Amino acid sequence: MPLDEYRKKRDFSKTPEPDGSTAPARKKGGELFFSVQKHLASHLHYDLRLEWNGVLLSWAIPKGPSIDPADKRLAMQTEDHPYAYGTFEGVIPEGYGAGIVMLWDRGTWTPEVPDVDAALRKGDLKFTLDGFKLKGSWALIRTRGFGGGSKPSWLLIKHKDEWAGPVAIAEFAPLSVKTPEADFADILAADNPDVWTSNAPAKTGDTGKLFQRIIRQAVEMKEQGKKRTSGDEEPKAEGKRQKAKVPPKPKAKAKKAKKAKKA
User: What share of the chain is helix, strand, coil (3-state, %, to 5)?
Assistant: First the structure.
């Protein structure tokens, strides 16, 4: 079954993730859904999801998508996810994938190949994205020699078009498209306020230590975002450079002028 691997890895009595028991509702016009979820877990990464045959084909992208065609981003294929997972945003308190999930982008995707299944088998899938942040033509190319899991590794590459450019899109647009202006700290505070206010999860042990680190990282990322928005970081550096360029005080100039006259 398509979702067997997904279900084996999770205890649905402890995680708020959907179990995939509800089939996706068919949409008019046959539009296919896609999303990218930003996942702060043991390591920050981004998960690309493409709807196909009732499930979400999934790839974990450690550095996140890039809209610069010069960047070839490693994309590790993972287990298929249920369709309902595509809009999930919240806190996974323990177990597999423990951390905070943000819905970073969503929209529709259109294959640029006549047979998607054949393209996946070949390892060369070309498609168009129409999301809030990611748009235009893309390719997933299967690679050799990367990773070590049961699933193959791929490269996610942006094709040259009007939606491409040398912009670090993950840094330029870091926030949620589901909860307006929300970052990881906001999602954690809203979804699990007890964890947030105590600054530690209810459980101790390895999971507790991991969550304490995730909480600290979420807070640090929020502070860094505030500094970038307010411009506090750059003026400090500029101030140091300008200090060295301050001209002599008028009094000092006057003293020099008097000495010159006496001479």
Answer: 35, 30, 40
- Cross-strand bridge partners of residue 38: 46, 102
Give the integer Cα–Cα distance in Å for 252 and 263: 17
Q: Look at residue 259 and tell me if it is in a domain.
A: no
User: Is the residue at 225 inside a domain?
Assistant: yes
Beta strands in the chain (DSSP E): 32-40, 44-52, 55-61, 72-82, 90-92, 99-111, 124-131, 135-142, 153-158
What are the mean pLDDT values of the chain's consecutive 10-residue runs (263 residues total)?
64 62 62 96 94 95 97 95 92 80 97 97 97 98 70 94 96 94 90 47 56 86 78 45 40 51 52
Domain range spanning residue 183?
4-233
Counted domains in the chain: 1
88 inside domain = yes
Task: Give a yes or no: residue 241 inside a domain.
Answer: no
Strand duo 72-82 + 153-158: pairing? antiparallel
pTM assigned to the model? 0.75
